[in-house]
TrEMBL record:
E.C. number(s) listed in UniProt: 5.6.2.3
PANTHER family noted in UniProt: DNA HELICASE B (PTHR43788:SF6), DNA2/NAM7 HELICASE FAMILY MEMBER (PTHR43788)
InterPro entries xref list: Coronavir_polyprotein_1ab (IPR050534), P-loop_NTPase (IPR027417), RecD (IPR006344), RecD_N (IPR049550), RecD_N_sf (IPR041851), UvrD-like_helicase_C (IPR027785)
Enzyme class: isomerase
Binding site for ATP: G185, G186, P187, G188, T189, G190, K191, T192
Protein name: RecBCD enzyme subunit RecD
Length: 636
């Protein structure tokens, strides 16, 4: 199979500059130039030894594939890879000869490497990508679920109201009529509202069969699960409240209202859980779950929110654990940063199914047809128009407009033009210390809920962990300022009012990556770590938390799946390779009421213009699998 490459290059994370001791030839050259890390070289050498392959060009390709996975790609595109280091004078092999050497290599013959010209995969990632493409294509090609038209029509009439626009209604109806739906849209486009209405429509379908639907609301992080669950519950409750702007209670006749109330009740109380919990984590195995093809999930409906965050491996495990009859709704914003782990599944799926001939007809807002799995919402329903406009300019790659909106400012947007760290420090100091002091005061008084609420009012987001614009530096700065303001030194790792960020999943404790909290004094003056996540707010002994960091500042990557009323985005220098459109868009869209961008115009422009792209073949695989006869990508 020949794959036309999709996106190619993920900007480089900071590299480990150590050199591999026994590297020579091409591997040594690329290691010295900083294109490969020592670990990439070691893996390539080892694979070469085991597979009896010594051609340095093949080993270079293996090392680049390993490097690619490390930085989020699923494969390496041999044609595009020289662009990784355009300025370095590197001995890239001749492109045609390189392809031939790789295609005919012992490693490809043995199946250790997979060659889908010009993409080269490590076998494991190839298998995952092929499985995801096959499973998704099979779901989309399968006979649609049976729909009780009368139940759908009457439920649609009931859920109609002020909070259900035509595009939302179309999306929800589509998700009833097909077993797989990808619901996309930017912030505030009403995705969660649509999910809530969809649950009511599905409850009507289940009721027509004399059942209640079993529903799982899931997301990658506990924080995102909580948000989804709360938002859906609020929306369901709001639909029944007479004093809201929505008009169900007033519009519907008493019999209809009773009917509607019954459906909302049936749609309520879904299971809300992280994907790892949904799939059943196993203490003995980090890549396999209790649920798989042989032990499928029993849910009728599985909704996955923030699905841009979900890496290829987890999508593969989710798809294999779903019964063909389970409705899957993937919800997300493809403009956001992709998963931390390898893959860019949501964006790939949207592009893959948007292709002409992908079993689709007509053209919806995203180019997806009325019968395709992708349903896009485009109309913003939030009142924060300026934040939305800024986010949209960034997403669309319009740097002039982004700069114009930033400079224009207003009640929702602020631009602090700072070209030096000390200018940024001066601009942010009071705000950051005020937050830290307020959190500390609540924490000293044992008020955990208030401390966390105060913390959630503002987030300082950085692109980097290290350096003058990095999280570590700003955490230390705020601690120093806090000590200066209070006259009490901040000593040790744990102190009253320490803002917390959980950085790993701990299933036994029920705390998950991305959850936040505060160290609060209890009645005896002992410190407890209060964490807010998918379960209710709970306190733990600090010593029990392994993976926890101080969070006066956090990285934009870690902020995915969460929001704060006010957000400050600290941009690094324009040359930073982490500075991308997706990064800036993700940061801006974390803000509910106000966003402040701190940095230079050049950094804003650099961010808007640089794409965070990963080498994957998923979109193309989906296109090929779903293209109708005579509609292969080459011929349309
Ligand atoms: N059709 C509508 N008319 C008016 N308001 C709406 C409509 N749909 C949603 N809203 C409101 O707009 C706001 C955003 O909706 P919602 O939370 O569903 O969007 P979202 O796409 O899930 O946003 P995010 O991804 O940012 O969480 C909510 O306050 C919601 O009540």
């Amino acid at each position: 199979m020949s794959l036309t490459p999709g996106p190619v290059l993920e900007p480089w994370p900071d590299l480990d500059r150590r050199l591999a001791r026994r590297a020579e030839g091409l591997l040594a050259d690329f290691n010295t130039a900083g294109v490969l890390e020592a670990a990439d070289v070691h893996v390539a050498q080892r694979v070469g030894r085991l597979g009896d392959e010594s051609d340095p060009r093949v080993l270079l390709a293996v090392a680049l594939a390993v490097r690619g996975v490390r930085s989020g790609s699923v494969c390496v595109d041999l044609d595009a890879v020289p662009d990784l280091a355009p300025d370095a004078d590197l001995p890239w092999p001749d492109a045609a000869q390189w392809r031939t050497a790789v295609a005919g290599s012992r490693l490809v013959e043995a199946g250790v490497l997979r060659w889908d010209a010009p993409l080269l995969y490590l076998d494991r990632y190839h298998r995952l990508e092929v499985q995801v493409a096959d499973d998704l294509a099979a779901r989309v090609a399968a006979a649609p679920p049976e729909v009780d038209e009368a139940a759908l029509a009457s439920a649609l009439a009931l859920v109609q109201g002020a909070h259900f626009s035509p595009e939302q209604q179309t999306a929800a109806e589509r998700a009833v009529r097909q077993s797989t739906t990808v619901l996309t849209g930017g912030p505030g486009t009403g995705k969660t509202t649509t999910v809530a209405r969809l649950l009511v429509l599905l409850a009507a379908q289940a009721r027509a069969r004399g059942q209640r639907p079993t529903v799982a609301l899931a997301a990658f992080t506990g924080k995102a699960v909580t948000r989804l669950n709360e938002a859906v519950a609020t929306e369901l409750a709001r639909m029944l409240s007479a004093d809201e702007e929505d008009d169900h209670a007033r519009r519907l006749a008493p019999a209809e209202l009773a009917d509607f109330t019954d459906l909302v009740d049936r749609a309520s109380h879904p299971d809300a859980l992280t994907l790892h919990r949904l799939l059943g984590w196993r203490p003995d195995n980090s890549t396999r779950f209790r649920h798989d093809r042989g032990n499928r999930l029993k849910y009728d409906v599985v909704v996955v929110d923030e699905s841009s965050m979900v890496e290829l491996t987890l999508v593969a495990r989710l798809l294999e654990s779903l019964r063909p009859t389970t409705r899957l709704v993937l919800v997300g914003d493809p403009g956001q940063l992709t998963s931390v782990g390898a893959g860019a599944v949501l964006g790939d799926v949207v592009r893959g199914f948007e292709a002409p001939g992908a079993g689709l007809s007509g053209s919806g807002p995203s180019g997806s047809g009325p019968s395709g799995p992708v349903a896009s919402l485009v109309v913003n329903h939030r009142s924060e128009q300026d934040i939305q406009a800024l986010a949209e300019a960034v997403r669309a790659g319009d740097a002039d407009e982004a700069v114009r909106l930033l400079r224009r400012g207003g009640p929702e947007v602020d631009f602090v033009e700072a070209d030096q760290p000390d200018v940024a420090e001066k601009a942010l100091r009071d705000d950051l210390v005020d937050t830290a002091i307020a959190v500390r005061e609540h924490a000293l008084a044992g008020r955990a809920t208030e401390a966390i609420e105060r913390l959630d009012q503002h987030r300082l987001l950085c692109a980097h962990r290290e350096g003058p614009f990095g999280v570590r530096h700003w955490n230390r700065l705020v601690e120093r300022w806090l000590a200066e303001r209070t006259g009490q030194p901040v000593t040790g790792e744990w102190y009253v009012g320490r803002p917390l960020l959980i950085t790993g999943n701990d299933y036994a404790l029920d705390v998950y990556n991305g959850e936040t909290g505060v160290a609060v004094a209890d009645a005896d003056g002992r410190l407890r770590a209060w964490v807010s996540g998918s379960a209710s707010l709970r306190d733990l002994a600090p010593a029990r938390l392994d993976a926890v960091e101080t969070m006066h500042a956090m990285t934009i990557h870690k902020s995915q799946g969460s929001q704060a009323q006010r957000v400050t985005v600290l941009l690094p220098e324009e040359a930073s390779r982490l500075l991308t459109r997706e990064l800036l868009y993700t940061a801006i869209t974390r803000a509910e009421k106000h966003v402040r961008v701190v940095g230079t115009e050049a950094a804003v422009r650099a961010a808007v213009q640089r794409r965070a792209q990963r080498a994957t073949g998923l979109a193309e695989r989906l296109r090929e699998l779903t293209a109708g006869p005579g509609q292969s990508p080459e011929t349309v």
